[in-house]
């Protein structure tokens, strides 16, 4: 019985790799379809990432009828990823866990009941979906969102965390209209850079504050190329009437502060 099962799995895996190379959108009908073996970055306790993480080899897992097997193409390392490993982030997966919360992958195979995804599609996981630091992921179709293959891979891999945070900061708290102005600190962060670009796209002016540090002049120029209207270091804003200064710079009706 064990020998027959192993042969069945081996045959299915050969079919699996044929499916990967096929351009006809073949779907999986065998319940014995499995993902290829995978490498993953795992941690079994919280602590410094370089001390508690390790790379392991994982056996293939069954691709059930509603599942999608995705080959990860790129996954970033965010500060929030490190914070989860350290155990200081408010939301943490149960241990042991695989690192990573965003990324982009290519659909490798789909279960027989999957309706909206096909082999070859590019997908990103919907948040919160941990475990992107592995080579193959098997999860239900509802977890995955199809994206355009025209998307630069580094943009697709990082769309979930920082750009969406920036979008929510701009639209979830107050109603901002074209001609309004926002002030933000930490403007060189990825969230800050996204806010600058989204604000410019919506006709919203941005006044940006960065830390005093070596290379601050270059950082100012970089942010202005992204669309920042004004960029100041913290020391430049050491004045008594800071609100008056900012309003005089913006010449607008509404001024909002993002911290």
Account of the protein in words:
This protein is of the alpha/beta class. The chain folds into two domains: 2-157, Quinone Oxidoreductase, Chain A, domain 1, CATH 3.90.180; 162-258, NAD(P)-binding Rossmann-like Domain (Rossmann fold, 3-Layer(aba) Sandwich), CATH 3.40.50.720. It is built from eight helices and twelve strands. The strands form three sheets. Strands 7-3-5-6-8 form a five-stranded antiparallel beta sheet. A four-stranded parallel beta sheet has the order 11-10-9-12, sandwiched between helices. Strand 10, helix 7 and strand 11 form a beta-alpha-beta unit. Helix 5 (162-171) packs across helix 6 (190-201). The protein starts with a helix and ends with a strand. The model is unreliable at 1-26 (pLDDT under 50).
């Amino acid at each position: 019985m064990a020998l027959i099962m192993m042969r069945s799995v081996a045959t299915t895996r050969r079919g699996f790799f044929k499916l990967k190379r096929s351009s006809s959108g073949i779907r999986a009908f065998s319940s014995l379809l499995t993902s290829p073996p995978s490498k993953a970055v795992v941690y079994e306790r919280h602590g410094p990432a370089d001390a508690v993480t390790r790379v392991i080899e994982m056996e293939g897992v069954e691709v059930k009828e509603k599942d999608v097997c995705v080959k990860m193409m790129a996954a970033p390392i965010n500060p929030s990823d490190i914070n989860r490993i350290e155990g200081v982030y408010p939301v943490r997966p149960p241990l042991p866990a695989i690192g990573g919360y965003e990324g982009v992958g290519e659909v490798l195979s789909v279960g027989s009941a999957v309706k909206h995804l096909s082999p070859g599609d590019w997908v990103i996981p919907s948040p919160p979906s941990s475990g992107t630091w592995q080579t193959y992921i098997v999860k239900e179709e509802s977890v995955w969102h199809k994206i355009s293959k025209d998307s630069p891979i580094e943009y697709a891999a990082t769309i979930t965390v920082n750009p969406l945070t920036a979008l929510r900061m701009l639209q979830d708290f107050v109603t901002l209209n074209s001609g309004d102005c926002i002030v933000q600190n930490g403007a060189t962060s990825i969230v800050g850079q996204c806010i600058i670009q989204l604000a410019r796209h919506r006709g919203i002016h941005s006044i940006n504050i960065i830390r005093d540090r070596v290379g601050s002049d270059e950082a100012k120029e970089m942010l202005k190329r992204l669309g920042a209207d004004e960029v100041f270091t913290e020391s430049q804003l050491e004045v008594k009437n800071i609100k008056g200064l900012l309003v005089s710079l913006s010449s607008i009706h509404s001024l909002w502060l993002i911290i």
